[in-house]
Amino acid sequence: xxxxxxxxxxxxxRHERSAQASSRTLVAVIDSVLEVIKGSGxxxxxxxxxxxxxxxxxxxxxxxxxxxxxxxxxxxxQAPPPCTRLGLATQ
Length: 91
Fold this sequence. Notes:
- This protein has about 90 residues and is an all-alpha fold.
- The protein has a domain at about 5-65.
- About 60% of the residues lie in helices and about 0% in strands.
- The protein is built from four helices and no strands.
- The protein has helices at about 5-15, 20-40, 45-65, 80-85.
- Helix 1 (about 5-15) packs antiparallel against helix 2 (about 20-40) and helix 2 crosses helix 3 (about 45-65).
- The radius of gyration is 20 Å and the shape is flat.
């Protein structure tokens, strides 16, 4: 078992028997994140955990219309030429 696995599974074990809502939420989040990581075939690591959690948080914020979350940049084909963005005239 890797260090990442032991940390996340230890955290889950510590909270899985608690009746507190925050502990139940934490266990549900851990289970969801582990399911996504394992389903994608990515080895469990701290980077995989961080990426999965951040992706989910960003996705949830975008779905809720949070104005603080930046939308992904437009595709290069849709972006104006660099000289136009800088206010330079094209020839």
